[in-house]
């Protein structure tokens, strides 16, 4: 027993004083609220919270004027080639309703964000778009029920895009040991029974400008080549399975070979769950006589071709040799 | 301590109030795609009399009139059709409302039944609260307005449970026989609505075994009655089954056991192939039942489990462990969807029969809490606190139900955060293509004569009824489906569900623009976009 305990031991109270002390303690001790009172309090709080939430949803969701103010804020400094992104993504139709004239299809259904140097993030509910999540160079332009931020990042120009260059494709498919070449027909190219068509594909529920094709079995590969395209500094291919119907109906992989100057440079097996998959390679050093161009292509085949709608994009990016960037002045 | 009771039986008031609320809602509720098929089936099924005397054999008459939409039983569709013939054909009521009346009447009856169950299990207040918590649920309210199967089968599920409880707890053998027979008949009729109640005898049997294991006497007659009346009424109420009976039953069961998997968004993922997360019905319920009744009912279940008190002190049916029965039926319909191999149906409508039991448990819990407060607080303070508690508990769900209409399927409770919170969580936005109805006043006013419309998931049958009932101008033309429909249209709309994004992109491609001219939304959450060429 230490000193302090001994000191307590020595204190003696007369019985009356002890009773009084106990009574005082009893009075001072905080009374624990009964079980039912805690539940009632909790329930009242939850009920008021639920009512408050509904009223807030009613009163504080963005109005027409909020969207118009955001559109005005963007419009003031928007330059063609900028990208508008929505946060959260489900608000995108509202953003397109008010700012659709600033959102061309090639931006809305972009392959990726690399070609855009300025991103306008239009957001509600304090959400942040995944496109701007990693960017530190953002400034707030408007704050309110609908907020606007302007973000900048380095951009990479696209030198060649298969989507716009489909007419110049040199394509062929093997059929019964014979080579069947692709020919233009209306809005597509037809290679025997296989057709190539530029569409706005639905890849994992997102829009992508791509060329859709249903490849055949490995013994009958489809080979697509674009000749003498500007090499740039990077070759970027994207592939995905178009439409939930196809992804629901089948799950066979599609084999994709990336071919540069007649040589296979990359190979992958693409499955439903791979989403919008990116393949990126450095182009070979162009031959002096090629004037900075390469022959670029894909070879596609599907071991189980049923319901395989592969949508692809093939681009070369980065400045070509000797090119310089000029920037249009931004409105003040 | 006495609980104040109403001098008059409020059953009629509950019935009328529920019915009127549903009726007012149904006037502005869009036609859902399945409903349009059932309208049509109702017309066919009640028109077979005209074929007598035309030289057709009886089988030809039955087959020609009942082959349409024969993947579902006929009884409720016959009621829809009969209601339409009487209330529209004879009395001139709006066609859509006339089709929907049987459902609304049944749900109004359910509100009364729940009041009675709550009253017999605990007190009048519990009964009143149970019926209020039943009606004031945005999703349940949505389904309760429609000429579909989900609300009627929910009503019959509860009615069967009630009749069964009365049968096994009856003190006289006469009562036991009477309620057993009623259980069987209700079960048979329910099989004429939808297959859900085929699972119910399993839960009732579970309860019956529980009662017997606890040493109580209980009659097995309800099971005998269900075994007899079930098949008899199932076939009797479905003329399609009168010929090639076994082959057609096999076809019916096969259709639902091997049903294709619907697309359904859950927590941001679109599911259309198994496996389906087992959490779907549980999280679905937790985010659709209004917050206060949800917490109350969960509290009641835990309280019962903790005290092993699946029995109640003041009940006409104390010998039958009624609380065990209620809890079993609050959880059972959700558990069905956890059976491995269950097709992906989507939507809380598939476990809707659980919701009345949650409402009942919530009503009981709140009444108990109020009683405890009044017992333990000074009278004035007790009255004040219980009044506040009751007001807040009922006002929240009522406000949500009013606020969510007519987009009940897009609404989620305060845990999720309403329309916008549900969208943030990636919960299913809607299904059945009913929401464009809110755009019709604008379309009727602004569209040129003969405009061709691509209406996406709003099917042709719904379009036909919208025009027939003058909700949509009769000169507007249905352009068709898929890409051909979009290509030939001058106005196109897309109804937002995660998997329907591709139709948005298809319209952009064909129209050459991603800019809609109108977006119908709630709390900034888009439900429908309209594009014009």
Report the end-to-end length of chain A measured between terminal Cα atoms.
81 Å
Instruction: Average the pLDDT over all residues of chain B and give the rounded result.
Output: 94
Rg of chain B over CA atoms, rounded to whole Å, is: 24 Å
- Give the helix proportion of chain B (percent range): 55-70%
Q: What is the rounded distance between the termini of chain B?
A: 71 Å
The helix-and-strand class of chain B reads mainly alpha
Q: Could you estimate the helical fraction of the residues of chain A in percent? A: 10-25%
Label the overall shape of chain B.
globular
How many individual helices of chain A? Answer: 7
Radius of gyration of chain A: 32 Å
Written as H for each helix and E for each strand, in order along the chain, the element string of chain A is HHHHEHHEEEEEEEEEEEEHEEEEE
Secondary-structure map with pairings?
The complex is a heterodimer of chains A (332) and B (533).
Chain A: H1 3-10, H2 15-28, H3 35-60, H4 64-77, E1 83-87, H5 92-99, H6 105-108, E2 118-124, E3 138-142, E4 146-152, E5 158-161, E6 170-175, E7 178-181, E8 183-185, E9 188-191, E10 194-203, E11 206-213, E12 222-230, E13 234-241, H7 244-249, E14 254-260, E15 263-270, E16 277-281, E17 293-301, E18 310-317
Parallel strand pairs in A: 1-2
Antiparallel strand pairs in A: 2-4, 3-4, 5-18, 6-7, 6-12, 8-9, 9-10, 10-11, 11-18, 12-17, 13-16, 13-18, 14-15, 14-17
Chain B: H1 11-28, H2 33-45, H3 58-66, H4 75-90, H5 95-121, H6 124-135, H7 138-144, H8 150-169, H9 173-191, H10 200-213, H11 221-236, H12 245-257, E1 264-266, E2 269-271, H13 280-288, H14 291-306, H15 322-336, H16 355-376, H17 379-404, H18 418-425, H19 440-446, E3 452-454, H20 460-468, E4 477-478, H21 482-487, E5 491-495, H22 501-511, E6 518-522, E7 525-532
Parallel strand pairs in B: 3-4, 3-5
Antiparallel strand pairs in B: 1-2, 5-7, 6-7
